[in-house]
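Please decode residue identities from the backbone states below.
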């Protein structure tokens, strides 16, 4: 255990507020990169997290809905202690 966290990737709950924040950040980034008529709606999150010193890395599979179409995206979000 390093700094109160087990080393390596750990599965995390999708309803965890930090996971939700990271997923919403990823969806917002995808939305900004695409000029779509229908916005993405977050349907499901499968997430793992790894803590390295003062950085948390989230590896997530996001299931999104856009209109009547479902899409899946693999994303990685890094978050430091300042929340950036």
């Amino acid at each position: 255990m390093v700094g109160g966290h087990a080393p390596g990737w750990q599965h995390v709950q999708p309803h965890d507020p930090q996971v939700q924040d990271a997923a919403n950040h990823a969806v917002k980034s995808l939305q900004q990169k695409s000029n779509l008529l229908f916005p993405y709606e977050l349907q499901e999150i499968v997430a793992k997290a790894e803590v390295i010193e003062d950085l948390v890395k989230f590896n997530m599979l996001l299931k999104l809905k856009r209109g009547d179409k479902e899409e899946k995206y693999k994303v990685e979000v890094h978050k430091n202690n300042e929340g950036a």
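Observation: Strands lie at 10-12, 41-52, 55-66, 69-80.
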